[in-house]
Give the backbone structure.
Amino acid sequence: MSRIGVFVCHCGENIGATVDCAKVAETAAKFPGVAYSIDYKYMCSDPGQTMIKDAIKEHKLDGIVVAACSPRMHEPTFRKAAREAGINEFLCEMANLREHCSWVHAKEDSTTEKATELVKMLVEKVKKNKPLTHIKVPVTKTALVIGGGIGGIQAALDIANCGHQVIMVEKEPSIGGHMAQLSETFPTLDCSQCILTPRMVEVAQHPNIKLYTYAEVESVSGFIGNFEVKIRQKAKSVDESLCTGCGLCMQKCPSKRIPDEFNAGLSNRTAIYVPFPQAVPNKPVIDREHCTYFKTGKCKLCEKVCPANAIDFNQKETIIEEKIGAIVVATGFDIKHTDFFPEYGYGQHPDIIDGLQFERLASASGPTLGVIKRPSDGKVPEKVVFIACSGSRDHAKGIEYCSKICCMYTAKHAMLYKHKVHHGDAYVFYMDIRAAGKNYDEFVRRAIEEDDVNYIRGRVSKIYERDGKLIVRGVDTLLNSEPVEVEADMVVLATAAVAQQKAEPLAQTMHIGYDAHHFYSEAHPKLKPVETNTAGIMLAGACQGPRDIPETVAQASGAAVKAVALFANDELTREPLVAVVNRTTPPMFSTCVGCFLCESACPYLAIGKEEIKDRNGNLIKTVAYINPGLCQGCGTCVALCRSKSIDLNGFTHQQILSEVMSLWNRREEYAEV
Amino acid sequence: MIRLGYFPGCSMAGTALEYGESIKAICEKLDIELVEINDWNCCGATAAHSLNHKLSLSLPARSIALAEKQDFDEILVPCAACYSRLINAYEEVKKDKKLREEITSIIEMPIEAKARPISVLEFLEKYVKDILAEKVKSKVEVVTACYYGCLLVRPPKLAKIDRYEDPQIMENILKIIGTKTIDWAFKTECCGAGLSVPKTDVVAKLSGDIYADAEKRGAEAIVLACPMCHSNLDMRRPEIEKYLSKAAQMPVLYITQMIGLALGIPGQKLGLQRHFVPVKEKDLKIVAELA
């Protein structure tokens, strides 16, 4: 006879206001095999846990059911309590009275009845629970950081400084990301390059960091602590060990009219190029798509002029395999471009630019050397209109979210413009000013009050050209809601921040979740903001959602700590809730007939073949083998197995059947009535 | 031979008589048969949907139901406002079974959303564009500003026009008949619409700005496909002239009149003489094609 304990939690009002918890506990006490039953306001609190531990010892319980919230929330809490009280933690089960009952039903007798039945099911299940032990797996103490922007740089440096190996993969020829493109940063207006480039150098020179630029993650297999990652190193066509970075090749390259990505298309670059003078590594690559030699088979001018013989047209793309323990994803974001806006002319007017383009215009390293000149004719604009929320918070555009960074960088842009063109006029059209952050609102006020930026609360419906001016037609929604027309020389759209173009396929490569906008999903919006639902993969920065530099850096350090914490142990423990192929007595040895349907069904590639041999080493039969390190316990193989030879620990056929049968008995009760 | 249902609406018999005349004239030339829907009624215009949602759906739904009785798959609705009301009712009724039943009981006629209203733009694109080149008798080489206004291209969900802020449908048609078109900023601006009567000063400003931009960018004629836009730009010309403080005598033509001229139909038959601002055929630079 079992001795089961039932602990019914009120979860404050969450359950208690809808379900009669005392009655549930009272009824549960009468279930066969229940030795102890009680209710309490907060079972997860210290007194609540103590209550459980004491009851286990006092009543010699051999299984417990905690009827409370979702096991996703507090199963680890109560399992730990069970372990501390001296019973195997897998003899603890949770009945979800909150998400599955009180939150979704009204306060009625039938709600309490349902709660009672949920408890009854779990009581029947826990009777069939077997003690399980954790699975131990080794840890490879090397982290992979995907993305070399400020998020990736911070995470890589933090992990490397803790003494662990880091491999950084960056898809561009240089690390630095969007931050390298910025002119000055809010709210202090310190130069972006000046605070970033030393860190880029630190990454390149750090003995614990191995840097792969112009490379992408091809595949990720394995599991926490034991990932196997394939990295596709694109052909740079330049032998980095020979190249001195002199730049002669770039001067001579004849294809000079390729839009420069780093300058957001405001200038041109050559086919052999480094993205910017402070690039890390500061060695060029050949963009084969635009290179005259790769297009026509003739040219090789760079090879002729290279004093170091570093040009290698025959270099091949290679696949590099690395063993990895933890992954930090810091792939960043992208922005919508001006062609996204029909009402602003489909991106056809050269003087309607996006925020990144303005950053390049304002940057000392930009195409105009920091002088604000409009792209069409190079004149200094006398009147500039900045439009916040271009695309963001706009259902009609399919982007419902706030891009978060625009209010601040628009204030910064307007301020920078006023600092550089004293007699110029700056206008900002805005919906709301969201300047929540340390010294942020003060910064916006400074733009308005000290730098005389004209803030107009309202939207812009149309921009068109008239006599060389851009007519910005909007509305001032304050006071009289008057239509406003501004004759501008240049317009800057604070376009919506969106996920990287390749965010979705990369998420699928890594088996991590993402939202409708392809931003990566955290494991819990509040309590696990840097982890993903795939153990061992962490998030840093704007790949998870739009965010600014301070927030990205903070999150990157958080992600780094999670990786370092993982590396603090030589072995990892994993939950033993995995599928197993059964073993029976000879001559069967296992009911598995070796059809291997399960092998093809397993989404985690965890199933292989195992040979059962006699003591002389002769093969008796080949059966399926499930690698407990890889198995995620999804149960697909269990459902598919034709001979019912696979069972899922913690969710065995017997346990599930017991749960269902407890409800069957209830039906008989009804029949009697 | 192509056979389409035809919903003239009130304009084709009144203020936009010449629009209707030119549509019929070009359809005759192009072997397209337009069959007027029996017993059609008012689309409801602005009044119905400002006052009563069900009424605004039932009025156009009745005409659609009648077209279904006559077995039409498509109904040509030349007036932009009528088109907007009909396509709205059609889409609403199509997607909502419950509403369909309700409207059926109101109009006492089954409606299945089988007969789809099409605008002149869709009509030209689908039935005229491909056969036009071989039928052209003369090129009409006047420089034009194609003006779309609002309801032919909006709301985007209903009109389903690509590049609704900068449509190119009329431009592409006019290219076939040798007309030069300008790129301009006011092609989807508001003409002032119904304020034509109560607030002519607003119409003068809105239509005047449209006129001024077209003129400044070198247009010699404005081409459009909406009776309301036409009456504001044509009939309200004295007010526009006053607003612009200058003479403004650029003619405003329906696109179907332009096509008619290219097909060799006499201007009289296309109703060119009916405009307030006189249309001089010699200014339209009609050049006969050499056979």
